[in-house]
Amino acid sequence: MTAPAIDALCIGNAIVDILAHAEDDFLAGEGLVKGSMRLIDEAEAGRLYAAMGPTVEVSGGCAGNTAAGVASLGAQAAFIGKIASDALGRTFRHDITAAGVAFPTACLEGGPATARSMILVTPDGERTMNTFLGACQELTPADIDGAVVASAATTYLEGYLWDPPKAKDAFRKAATLAHAAGRRVALTLSDSFCVDRFRDEFLGLIRDRSVDLVFANEGEIRSLYQTADFDTAVAAARADCRLCAITMGERGSLVVTHRETHHVPARPIDRIVDLTGAGDLYAAGFLTGLARDFPLAKCARLGGLCAAEVIGHLGARPEARLVDLAAEAGFAA
Amino acid sequence: MTAPAIDALCIGNAIVDILAHAEDDFLAGEGLVKGSMRLIDEAEAGRLYAAMGPTVEVSGGCAGNTAAGVASLGAQAAFIGKIASDALGRTFRHDITAAGVAFPTACLEGGPATARSMILVTPDGERTMNTFLGACQELTPADIDGAVVASAATTYLEGYLWDPPKAKDAFRKAATLAHAAGRRVALTLSDSFCVDRFRDEFLGLIRDRSVDLVFANEGEIRSLYQTADFDTAVAAARADCRLCAITMGERGSLVVTHRETHHVPARPIDRIVDLTGAGDLYAAGFLTGLARDFPLAKCARLGGLCAAEVIGHLGARPEARLVDLAAEAGFAA
Prior knowledge:
Two copies of one chain form a homodimer.
Chain A: E1 6-11, E2 15-21, H1 24-30, E3 37-39, H2 42-51, E4 56-59, H3 62-72, E5 77-80, H4 87-98, E6 115-121, E7 127-132, H5 146-150, E8 152-158, H6 165-180, E9 184-188, H7 192-207, E10 213-217, H8 218-224, H9 230-240, E11 243-247, E12 253-256, E13 261-264, H10 278-291, H11 296-310, H12 322-328
Parallel strand pairs in A: 1-5, 1-8, 2-6, 3-7, 8-9, 9-10, 10-11
Antiparallel strand pairs in A: 2-4, 6-7, 11-12, 12-13
Helix pairs in contact in A: 3-10, 7-8, 8-9, 10-11
């Protein structure tokens, strides 16, 4: 087996985030559940856009954020996701390419528009997402290039890929090809509402070893095992998953395998500006560490370093060069 | 004369800002002068966009930022500026309308694209702007609605309007109509490079009383009078201008008339994140104060309050409700 040319191949929904501040009253008037991600159609996207306040547009998507983080660490990253040939699609392609990520997926021609997530930021810093998937719904197995998958140390898949029906098949194809090439498959559970929608399928993927590594936060892992008790959820994850990395906010992260447990504290930070992307960037650091054969606790520490950078500013992609931060923090390249 | 229905009508270039971080080396390689605003054509805009890093898009333009500030103070604001019928134009219209600003200007059909300013933010926080004026070049006197101008307490014009040749005529028409209706005309000098390009014309507008009120910062007023000495520039401004408000960063602002001088200190702030929009928001507070017949020093204090809000976060339009901040600070509505 040749050494992987790509450290992490991230596959997910290609989304541009459209951010606006909103009061709690606005969420209540719209009947929105704070902190959730809701799927909407194009008409509702237009209606909500007209109703919401002034916006900021920035490329997003969980897997895209992770890929940008991996590249910022100086590692080789690739992204697969579907955009349309429109202005938002050009913005997405520019931004991920400018971040140093290979993006081989062809544009969709003649279908729905590029996906956007209208994110309402309430005064408490919480984010409520309203996502029009658009072109993402047209990601199909044909978009999964076997040679790219075979050359990636880890193929990383976001749980949100389970929302667009055809993307499930792309997800399964990527996992099968990665394993056939002797590579690792990772899944992030995306959010606890996503876990609610697809609990049995996610558990199936984990238990039949389609997935080697699971990323989750506390809410997601509790949702997966339908328990309010975190320790119960961790015990279940230890039994089911080959490797599971659980982020716990200010309490750091927990890495569990059948035999090992590592608790890595969070890095002290000056100020939390925006929590979006914390999990995505944790995964970026962890995956880069795995590609460099770091011990698991060191992978978790590198993940924590990346997460700390992204929560210090608005937006879910790194602003600082993570490779420099990692070097300063004593992580050898 | 009826009471004005609009507190401030702001006329300027309708621009979407496209922000990216950049190293000093990148500016040097591109031959860019740090802190300047450079006009570029569409081909150069495409080339530079491809070369620059990941971006954030947010509606901008000096006069647009000021109008958004006036509306956030709970006053009546209108904006005139030219956009195209494209994605950036829709973003601009959404954002300024969502900010509560009346925006009566029709879209340009069949001409150049909506203006964008590619802003490179270096690690020292300085911004270097590369602006493709596009549709702004098609702002003409036909876009100046006499009834709107006549109903505005102040018509506020940005110096950058002198760049697109046809917009000059729109500028002159607006000033003439405002004075015919017994209203006030204000000019912001925009930047010291803009003053360099149009010094004689700006001085002409001030000296022939086409303009009643001039907004400037220290660099701009020194550039206008071609002197390195601030006091010399202030003395010249006092002689030439009916009313001149000069922002001085952390030293606050200075308001001068032929007979009066008011120095208003800056408000203490926790942290400067981004200086963009400070002058625009100062003008928003000052103009709103004038519309409420505040004494000049109180107008300057309200301007300082608005400027302090906008430099506390990324982006040149207010995030907090300025009307609430003003009430907390003791400014009666």
